[in-house]
Please model this.
Amino acid sequence: MFEGLAEADLARRSRPDAFSTRIETPRRGRTQSVLLQGPERSYDADATIYAQTEPADFIYQVVAGVVRTVTLRPDGRRAVHGFHLPGEIFGLEREKLHHCSAEAIGASRLVQWPQRRLDALAGGNADAARELWIGLLTSRDRTAERFMHVMHGTASEKLAYFLIDLTWRMRSEGRIQLPMSRYDIADYLGLASETVSRTFTVFRARGLISTQGREVRLLSDEILRLSGADDIAAHWPTTLA
Amino acid sequence: MFEGLAEADLARRSRPDAFSTRIETPRRGRTQSVLLQGPERSYDADATIYAQTEPADFIYQVVAGVVRTVTLRPDGRRAVHGFHLPGEIFGLEREKLHHCSAEAIGASRLVQWPQRRLDALAGGNADAARELWIGLLTSRDRTAERFMHVMHGTASEKLAYFLIDLTWRMRSEGRIQLPMSRYDIADYLGLASETVSRTFTVFRARGLISTQGREVRLLSDEILRLSGADDIAAHWPTTLA
DNA sequence: CGCAGTTTTGATAAAGCTCAAGATCTGTGG
DNA sequence: CCACAGATCTTGAGCTTTATCAAAACTGCG
Model:
């Protein structure tokens, strides 16, 4: 089980020149590396892209929107494995079947790519293989990093880490529109949704952030220290919105 | 940061025929796949194999003994990323530097292998590349799986999962000699060492295990249910020692 | 406007952490 | 072989954090 956690970052976190093709994205005028090419497919809000135990024939790259990967735990609770942003790849499996479900959060557009063609790519082309390899190592490291933050941290540290990580991945500078609900965040961080809410309130009271609905502004870089995301902090812009 | 969590299982968890060479191990009469070959190096108990921020020139495979990978967190606490058993590989990094330290638990023997030769292997040989690829996917999945158990579980679930996982990896049937201290276990599971102790006591009282020092016997497969390690449970021998 | 879903707040209880002390184990020197 | 010292492990009591249960405020949308 437990696909998805990591692939989120396979493309985004790896070196910007990771894959063979690249396109200019309108967003913030930066280049965005692209692995997959093919016809786009649209999904409505809350549409299921694939379900647990379905054959894992394709991997996907997000073009627009956000996808969450999810499993239902034995006790009936939901665990969110990851949020997949535009440019990010998910659905890569070791086994023949998907180990968790993928659902669109809001209307989304995706590109899909057959798993077996990826195999060929990884085996046949040394450069591509190397880049895929680095991407996987990166995604493993990201999984491990989130693990450490979430396992050892308080609710504040978890949420701070979540906000910083998401802000970074969205290429934003201190102002993000959260696509997901408090429930999603809670199930992602291993907290109760009420605790997520309360922690937002605490952050607001301490002047670390301001919120309007799902829009969050980071007001103080104290939140960076809270998050313990040293690697991100090192590259953080000096001023916040 | 946060190397090590995953490589633990790179060799062991992947398909048994994962790598090109294999040897017969005396242990329990099973075969054990081996990736690395070369001169062995011995380490005393508590010896440091490599330290954080050192150049990551080699990867290692455990021949005998057990290795733990560790980082010191900003608040001074220690986080144990993984325990590496005989046959398992660790030290594979994406960056040029090691992101955590590796220490021998008890006297150990290791084989080392230059990182760059691994690069060549992955890029040049399609079969080997494929196997390394699968190994990494496996290790990612294992990290994610542990993540889910540890993030959402109670102390009992965490410890049960730890015991089951270790028993499985040690190819044991319900009786293991823990190489690591309660402190190590606590820092691995994100618990206080006192909580680990208390949970052992609870398990003993409920007749799930018996202990003598660091030897643990699993007495009831109820501990399997507790652990939620369904994937392992599916392959579990029907009787416990 | 009003409904359904979401977010926030409040009160209470449970789980696990901290501090503290006692018990057990292990290795070492006599 | 025994005694001792240091480390490891266990147990206890109180406290902090977070989950749980409950309800009120807010939001978006038909």
Observations:
- Chain A touches chain B through 46 residues (CB under 8 Å).
